[in-house]
């Protein structure tokens, strides 16, 4: 689990200042909210900031009001497509979308019918639709109103990926933990803030994590227990952070990070490295050394955008490259590379700990069938963008079929919504050779 700061939390500040404060406080990265400032929409500048402060951009939040942005598409579908281009350019993983307002019927139709097409065009991004709040207005004192289309639990359940905004849940008076349990399989991103009561029924949104009635500590603990490997973005109001006083902002941001670390996992969890950052560095080393590889198993699936926990990294490579890998990482060896076999599999296998990450390498992976050893390595290959570094992985469709073959139907069910229909059919028809079938 990684904890980031939304630039929207301090939208009254400049981006350079926000990146610096996020780094100082100990956040893992940044969510950029695209707004009227060109700085938030220029990838070259954003990458400069990310490199200067070692603050990767994990998510980009599409603008609420595209018509108000200069030199930007006026309609939501084109605006979201441009946001996807921006997210890809800065190496982000998530694009956060808002639901349509009541008068945005065309945008609502597009979300239902064509968001999946945009997802297919950008397979390395996750488009996560955010639940929206109910709002009080002066001319209607009887209760909060819903100004958004598709802003119901039934409608949310139809989106493959959701951004769960905790303070928006509070405006409905719902139990946060119960809602999370019902939507857990779809939650790809989290916006984290508390809510404070104003009178008997009204709430004040986007408060600091410790300032409100939501059980955010229990919520983070539940995420950690469920192996949530995604991003949790602290998204608060500048006034909640006392933005008029930078010293107070510094103190509050440190407290938000401490809260996340304390409740998002125990000491061991806190010390666990960011597997994406560690894998990115490992891939750079492998490319420099000319070692061929593919990231397979759960990590490869997670790189395709499937919400699965990542505990270690499995690398498929040639037999020769497994021993070259061992030479490069001799001091990090836990189990030296050797031909090993179990009842079901055999390969030239080695185990390493690199930058705190457990890495297992396999050369010439084979499976026992009818008393004989047969090849079972992956045969397809694709690349995914990991913070600007291309990483080699098998097709998600091949991994999905491998899960089905091994009887891991639950994992296959998580993968299927992310699969490309035509690729999957080509494998099932035998048009592309794989060892799974």
Structure, described:
This protein is an alpha/beta fold and 437 residues long. It has 2 domains: 2-271, TIM Barrel, CATH 3.20.20; 275-428, Beta Polymerase, domain 2 (2-Layer Sandwich). The protein is built from 16 helices and 20 strands. The strands form 5 sheets. It has an 8-stranded parallel beta barrel with strand order 1-2-3-4-5-8-9-12, surrounded by 4 helices. Strands 13, 14, 15, 16, 17 and 18 form a 6-stranded mixed sheet that branches. Strands 6-7 form a two-stranded antiparallel ribbon. A hairpin with a 2-residue loop joins strand 6 and strand 7 (140-145). Helix 1 (15-25) packs across helix 9 (246-263) and helix 14 (396-405) packs antiparallel against helix 15. It is globular and about 75 Å long.
Task: Offer a quick outline of the entry.
This protein is of the alpha/beta class and 437 residues long.
């Amino acid at each position: 689990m990684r904890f980031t700061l939304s630039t929207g939390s301090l939208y009254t500040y400049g981006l350079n200042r926000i990146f610096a404060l996020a780094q100082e406080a100990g956040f893992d990265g940044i969510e950029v909210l695209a707004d009227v400032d060109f700085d938030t929409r220029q990838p070259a500048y954003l990458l400069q900031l990310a490199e200067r402060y070692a603050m990767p951009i994990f998510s980009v939040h599409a603008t609420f009001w595209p018509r108000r942005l200069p030199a930007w598409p006026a309609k939501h579908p084109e605006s979201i497509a441009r946001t996807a281009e921006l997210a890809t350019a800065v190496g982000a993983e998530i694009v956060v979308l808002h639901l349509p307002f009541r008068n945005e019927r065309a945008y609502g139709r597009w979300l239902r019918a064509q968001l999946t097409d945009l997802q297919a065009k950008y397979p390395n991004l996750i488009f996560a639709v955010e639940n929206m709040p109910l709002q009080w207005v002066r001319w209607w004192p009887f209760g909060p109103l819903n100004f958004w289309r598709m802003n119901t639990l039934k409608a949310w359940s139809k989106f493959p990926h959701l951004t769960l905004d905790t303070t928006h849940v509070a405006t409905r008076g719902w139990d946060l933990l119960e809602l999370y349990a019902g939507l857990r399989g779809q939650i790809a991103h989290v916006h984290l803030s508390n809510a404070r009561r104003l009178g008997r029924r009204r709430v004040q949104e986007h408060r600091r994590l410790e300032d409100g009635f939501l059980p955010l500590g229990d919520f983070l603990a539940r995420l950690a227990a469920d192996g949530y490997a995604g991003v949790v973005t602290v998204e608060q109001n500048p006034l909640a952070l006392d933005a008029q006083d930078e010293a107070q902002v510094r103190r509050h941001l440190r407290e938000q990070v401490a809260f996340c670390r304390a409740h998002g996992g125990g000491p061991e969890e806190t010390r666990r490295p960011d597997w994406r950052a560690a894998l990115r560095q490992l891939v750079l080393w492998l490319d420099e050394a000319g070692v061929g590889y593919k990231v397979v198993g759960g990590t490869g699936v997670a790189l395709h955008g499937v919400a699965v926990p990542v505990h270690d990294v499995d690398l498929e490579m040639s037999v020769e490259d497994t021993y070259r890998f061992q030479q490069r990482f001799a001091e990090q060896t836990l189990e030296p590379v050797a031909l090993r076999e179990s009842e079901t599999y055999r390969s030239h296998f080695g185990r390493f700990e690199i930058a705190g990450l457990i890495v297992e390498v396999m050369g010439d992976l084979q499976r026992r069938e009818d008393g004989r050893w047969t090849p079972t390595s992956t045969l397809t290959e694709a690349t995914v963008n990991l913070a600007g570094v291309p990483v080699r992985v098998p097709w998600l469709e091949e991994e999905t079929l491998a899960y089905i073959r091994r009887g891991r139907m639950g994992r296959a069910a998580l993968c299927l919504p992310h699969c490309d229909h035509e690729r999957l059919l080509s494998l099932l028809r035998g048009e592309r050779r794989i060892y799974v079938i």
